[in-house]
Amino acid sequence: MKLKNRYPYLFISPAVLLLSLFSLIPILIAFFISFTDMNLKGLADWSSISFIGLENYQTLFADDTFIKSIFNTIFYVVIGVPLVIICSLSIALLLNYGTSRLFTMFRAVYYMPSITNIIAVAVIWGYLYNTEYGLFNYILSLLTVENIPWLQEPTIAKISLIILAVWKGIGINMIIFLAALQGIPKSYYEAAEMDGANRLQVLFHVTLPLLRYATFFVTVTTLIGWMQFFEEPFVMTDGGPLDGTISIALFIYKEGFQFSEFGYAAAGSFVLFAMIIVVTMIQFKLRKSDTEY
Amino acid sequence: MAAATKKNKWEQALVIFIMVAGGILVSIPFIWMISSSFKPESEVLAIPPTIIPENPTLENYINLFTNMNFAVYLRNTLVIVFFSFLGLLFNAMAGYGFAKYDFKGREKVFYIVLATMMIPGQVTMIPVYLLLNAMGLTNTMTGIILPGLAVAFSIFLFRQFMTTIPDDLIEAARLDGAGEFHIFFRLVIPIAKPIFAVQGILTFIAGWNSFLWPLIIANDESLYTLSVGLSLLQGQYANNFALQMAGAAFMVVPIIIIFSFFQKYIVEGFTMSGIK
Q1: Which of A127, B64, B86, B211 is the least buried, fewest Cβ under 10 Å from its Cβ?
Q2: Which tens digits make up the pLDDT trace of A212-256?
Q3: CB contacts < 8 Å between A and B, how many?
Q4: What are the chain B neighbours of A166 within 8 Å (beta carbons)?
């Protein structure tokens, strides 16, 4: 019996040990170094690291680039998240309309962008967005619209990145909505039809309320994902022009790996972590009060 | 009744029209990528652009391997993919452990595993780099592979699926004298095939696309993956869009092919894992 008891630990230990080493211990290290001035010098010689208390956190909130990155991240989240949810829900409703092979085929088409490599995406969209040779400006020139500086003007660049990220973000959420839609029993629709409800009434009073759990799940995960908006500005604009597209996550990466200010970057990452926790908790709170009615 | 079906026909036509039009819109980047990758350098900058290449050429694809080291990048990427399947096995084992064994601290450890999903990648990025540096693993393949092996979400999905396997089945095998690992490999894995299919495809895609970690860890070009190589290409040949598109197509097309074969499993996988 004693021998048998070690099996569960044998099964879970490889994955659990790896997770502890690369997820749990790092968070303690990050927390610790966020109170130090650890940088490239400290990497070579640990004795040169000194404890500086809350200085990193104070510097952060006086750092114009960090403030700008918070503003930009809010911009991405406020516009991007609702767009992704509306687009993926609408496409899921379209795809759920029929069952023929055509619908299955287009399900794959809409899903495709989400599994496409981000660098390939950046390379392709960089070409599409090119001011002189890009397809977008060519099509617009046919409609006699002036060249648009897709990635050269701070606000337009932010919107360009959002368009790209929405294009890439639809797939996975659409699949979740589709799975939820297929789980709704047919009898609900039949009952509504018998009661004489029209299409729109069915949509707003039967389908959407039944998608509440899926919508909640998609909203929480999408919001967390967009708060960590990173790869798009990283590969398309490197945060420019004039820090116009830098996000909090990109700020952390740059401080950490371009300027090797590990302590400062770790402090930034904890500010982001705290923001994510607060936003997620607010959502759960709102949902709780929602179900009580 | 006739009026109703007529109305339905119109409605159906409208739905199909919107769906197809939206689908084409979504596919434009892909179509443009494929078409441009077969154009000679001069044609790719032509205004007005051609949709179908006038002088199709394979030159861009050949250049990837002669001017750039895409063969090396491809090898490294495949090594990463191979080892991420080892990680998949670890995740499956852990999922089975949490689902089918009763042991001290099971709930606690499982909640900790779930909690790691909450930690944003940006928080662990720097300390993991510092850890690997202290272990002397920067600029090595091991350093690139190791941090990505265990995936909490994957453990969670395996556990969800494996709790549905009847205990009697496992108990019966035990009575027949089968060892615990024998049961796992010979009985549990075949039953859990559907979840392995989904996780396998997702693991392949993640490994094939891996970018950030190889970029941080690898200093030598000999350790670059396809993504890192492609971003290098974008910097070096900023105005050679035909070559860039060929590089992108080389990364994207294999994924599209694999996905179109297995897409049924991915959708079923989401329904199965109870995200409803």
Answers
A1: B86
A2: 888 888 898 899 989 999 888 888 888 878 888 999 999 999 999
A3: 267
A4: none
Q: CB-CB: which of B16, B147, B241 is closest to A133? A: B241
- A271 contacts chain B (CB < 8 A): no
Flag whether B196 is in a domain. yes
CATH class of A64-292: mainly alpha
Q: Which residues of B touch A120 (CB under 8 A)?
A: 33, 227, 230, 247-249, 251-252
Structure tokens that stand for B67 in this block: 């001017």
Q: In the prediction, which pLDDT does B271 show?
A: 62
Beta strand spans in chain A (E)? none
Mean pLDDT within A32-41: 86
Residue position matching structure tokens 């211990």: A25
Residues B76 and B144 in one domain: yes
Query: Does B6 share its domain with B115?
Result: no
Q: Which of B226, B186, B246, B206 is nearest to B60 (CA)?
A: B246
Q: Which of A12, A115, A256 sits opposite B259 (nearest CB)?
A: A115
Domain that holds residue B208: 68-236
Q: Verify whether the Cβ–Cβ distance A119 to B125 is below 8 Å.
A: no
A94–B15 CB contact, under 8 Å? yes
Cα–Cα distance for residue pair A149/A138, rounded to 1 Å: 13
How many angstroms separate the CA atoms of B122 and A265, rounded? Answer: 9
**What are B14's two structure tokens?**
């409208």
Q: Which amino acid is at A276?
A: I
Q: What is the average pLDDT across A87-103?
A: 88
For residues B83 and B90, what is the distance between their CA atoms, to the nearest angstrom? Answer: 11
Q: Are residues B208 and B90 in the same domain?
A: yes
Q: Is residue B105 included in any domain, yes or no?
A: yes
Contacts of B246 (CB under 8 A, 6+ apart): B37, B60, B61, B63, B64
d(CA A99, CA A70): 44
Reference B219, options B109, B101, B106, B132; nearest CA is: B132
pTM: 0.87
Question: Helices in chain B by DSSP H: which ranges?
Answer: 2-37, 41-44, 59-66, 70-100, 106-116, 121-134, 141-145, 152-162, 167-175, 180-183, 189-191, 193-209, 212-217, 226-236, 241-272
Check if the beta carbon of residue B100 is closer than 8 Å to that of residue B162. Answer: yes
Q: Where are the domains of chain A?
A: 64-292
Task: Work out the angle at residue A283's Cα, subtended by the Cα atoms of residues A161 and A206, and round it to the nearest 5 degrees.
Answer: 90
Residue with tokens 């119109």: B10
Are the beta carbons of A155 and A71 closer than 8 angstroms? no
Q: Which of B151, B120, B137 is nearest to A252 (CA)?
A: B120
- Does residue A238 come out as left (phi exceeding 0), alpha (psi in the -120 to 50 range) or beta? left
Rg over alpha carbons for chain A, rounded to the nearest Å, is: 24
Please give the ipTM for the structure prediction. 0.83
Q: Is A109 on the interface with B (CB under 8 A)?
A: yes
